[in-house]
Amino acid sequence: VESNYDAIRSEYFSAVLGQGCNGTIPHNPLDPDYDVAKQGGEHADDALHSGTWDWHSYILNGEKNEKFKERCPKTAQVIYDLEKERMLFGTPFGFCFFSTLHGKSSIKAHSGPMNLRLRMHMPLMVPKKDDTPSAKNTKDVIPSRPTTGMRVADQTREWHEGSAIVLDDSYVHEVWNDSEESRVLLLLDLWHPDVKMEEREKIANMFSFARGKGWIGAK
Q1: Whose CB has fewer CB within 10 Å in the chain, the N or C terminal residue?
Q2: 76: Cβ contacts below 8 Å, ≥ 6 apart
Q3: Is 7 exposed, middle or buried (0-12, 13-18, 19+ CB in 10 A)?
Q4: CB neighbourhood size of 92 (10 A)
Q5: CA dist 125 to 5, 41, 145, 148, Å?
Q6: Are 112 and 169 in contact, with CB atoms under 8 Å apart?
Q7: Strand pairing of 63-64 and 53-60?
Q8: Residue 100 near residue 31, CB atoms below 8 Å
Q9: pTM of this structure
Q10: What would the pLDDT profile of 15-36 be if each residue is shown by its tens digit?
Q11: Which helix (H) or strand (E) holds 12?
């Protein structure tokens, strides 16, 4: 994924921001496609986030968005290559999307529904650090958290453009962007490596059966 950072970032600028288009035919930006405060699923909690958190999804609750594939073919190919290697978490709890957390926004502490998956963050745009003297030289003050970052369990991390982070989101985690700029990353779900291949097939079949019954999945 990291080796395709430039291509993925370019497609975000083109498909989401409408910038850097080739030729004379304009590209209308893709609209955000998931309302975390209203739609069903693990992220549906109007108290979960504050500010603005936009999704532009390729995979939403395990279902692929062909319009995204048309607009972001290189990104879709990267995901397909992971799928061929049987690494992509192909269940109704699988997601892949451009995650745009706007300035002065946050996602409160929460945990994912299972530990069958790992979640990858590929940072595409990260606000610059606040290195002002007042922030660095204040005495007798407990060191504050980074301006933009996340906490997973007892570990705090910052993003660096082009460097992927993989986390187990079944642990309690939270995300914040206290800057004025947007933080953008490609988020995707992978099988946890401790889940064996034969187990993955059985789990996928179980979820497929449950989805067919209407018990889980997109509403």
Answers
A1: C
A2: 58, 68, 69
A3: middle
A4: 19
A5: 11, 27, 19, 11
A6: yes
A7: antiparallel
A8: no
A9: 0.87
A10: 999 876 454 445 688 999 977 6
A11: helix 5-15
